[in-house]
Amino acid sequence: MEIKKKDIRALTKEQLRNFFEENGDKAFRGNQVYEWLWQKSAHSFEDMTNISLKTRQMLEDSFVINHIRVNQMQRSEDGTIKNAVRLHDDLIVESVLIPTATRTTACVSSQVGCSLDCKFCATARLKRMRNLNPDEIYDQVVAIDNESRLYHDRPLSNIVFMGMGEPLMNYNNVLKAIDKITSDEGLGMSPKRIVVSTSGVPKMIKKMADDGVKFKLAVSLHSAIDEVRTSIMPFNATFPLASLRDALEYWYAKTKNRITYEYVVWDGINDKRKDVDALVEFCKFAPSKVNLIEYNPIDDGIFQQANSKAIDMYVDILEKNNITVTVRRSRGKDIDAACGQLANKT
Ligand code: SF4
Questions:
Q1: Residue 142 and residue 38 share a domain
Q2: 262 CB less than 6 Å from ligand 1?
Q3: Cellular component GO terms, alphabetically (predicted)?
Q4: What pTM was computed for the model?
Q5: Which residue has a Cα nearest atom 7 of ligand 1?
Q6: In-domain check, residue 284
Q7: Where are the beta strands (DSSP E) in the chain?
């Protein structure tokens, strides 16, 4: 019977040091290998050129490196890049590089498919297959950082967890990946440049506050009226706005970090004055910022971007109430890389 080899990147540095000691080598060898695995993102043991051939063979016999492979890369006219990423078990997720004049942002996936069922989202049409491992999240970031350097002559500056999946439903692995991304033994990025975007899982928002995380939080709100929100995000029936608000109040009390709301205005769904008034009311308990995001239809004819008059109304009323608001143009539409469009068409 073939013995299934363990993914070496599931080991902590300490475990790797112990492995070498138990096999008659120096613990220090574990540090060297750890550096190859994370800082240098080695795809194979062969790459580890300062490790002896004998040791590399021992590693080969004991472990695998389940590195992701970029299966297909698409480049948009506006510089956006979408990667279809193949995982070790041949499942595919997508991640996106979004360049602007001042920053390069990676939008990464946290799950294969999604267990939630937001009606406007292409990913929701895919069954949730599994959570991504920390190294699979980390690898997406490394791949985009490399592409950013290659095609845009600058390193990656920001990361958003807004790709496929609900990151707080894969909380532990997302946190482990962020630990690596921000650690000097990984990419050394500042946690302030990372945004975890959730559809709003109250229990997990409170846990994040208790855990003292340093990254930023964004909530895909889309409506501050329960009836409307439940019709477009059905899990709102289980976690209604009052429980979301309660969790966000808790988050703000502990972190003092402003809350960002992601918000799409759809024609005939949330484009009326009462929708804006409810949003203003919802935002009152803590300093808030609203990102109004341009929507990209997913061919179902139901969800259409509201007209510019409705967007102007939102901006006007939010500003009058001293709530920061930005209107975000969507990127990479021609390659289905825009918000809500990630659905493994490849
Ligand atoms: S919007 Fe996010 S949480 Fe909702 S179905 Fe899509 S991927 Fe899942």
A1: no
A2: no
A3: cytoplasm
A4: 0.92
A5: 165
A6: yes
A7: 6-7, 63-64, 69-75, 81-86, 92-99, 104-107, 111-112, 130-131, 158-161, 194-198, 216-220, 259-263, 288-293, 324-328
